């Protein structure tokens, strides 16, 4: 009987880890994140790309300069990858509801959508990512 209970308890993390995080999980987080305030001015960030197996494929730093223009947040990003490659992207981001945002950028396919909740922000979009001599359409969930 103890074996069944232990086996059942070991399965719980496996089942719950499939659910993933959701913006509402951070609803009570403080201080509240206000995108327009946080990204106005200069921001520096670090990140990485993982493949579908969780292996780190690439790391980068990004310098972001944010300004407000005609009711939109303009984010100019300058990436420097660990292999020396450089890339730039400019986002135009608009608040469309108290906790919802939409944005566009030159290499983004369609419209990016974001949800702010507490001290967190989730940004989802598709991007035509350069791979070798071609491109691959990749879904991002930041």
Helix content: 10-25%
Approximate shape: globular
Biggest sheet descriptor: 8 strands, antiparallel
Q: State the total count of DSSP E strands.
A: 8
CATH class: Mainly Beta
CATH topology: Lipocalin
Structural class: mainly beta
Please provide the ordered H/E string of secondary-structure elements. Answer: HHEEEEEEEE
Give Rg in angstroms: 19 Å
How would the blueprint of this fold be written?
Layout: H1 2-17, H2 35-38, E1 41-50, E2 56-69, E3 72-81, E4 86-97, E5 100-105, E6 108-117, E7 120-131, E8 134-141
Antiparallel strand pairs: 1-2, 2-3, 3-4, 4-5, 5-6, 6-7, 7-8
Core attributes:
14% helix; single chain; eight-stranded antiparallel β-sheet; 2 helices; 142 residues; disordered N terminus; Lipocalin; mainly beta; globular
Give a verbal description of the structure.
The protein is mostly beta strands. It has one domain (22-141): Lipocalin (Beta Barrel), CATH 2.40.128. Helix content is 14%, strand content 58%. It has helices at residues 2-17, 35-38; strands at 41-50, 56-69, 72-81, 86-97, 100-105, 108-117, 120-131, 134-141. The protein has an 8-stranded antiparallel beta sheet. A hairpin with a 4-residue loop joins strand 3 and strand 4 (86-97). It is globular and about 40 Å long.
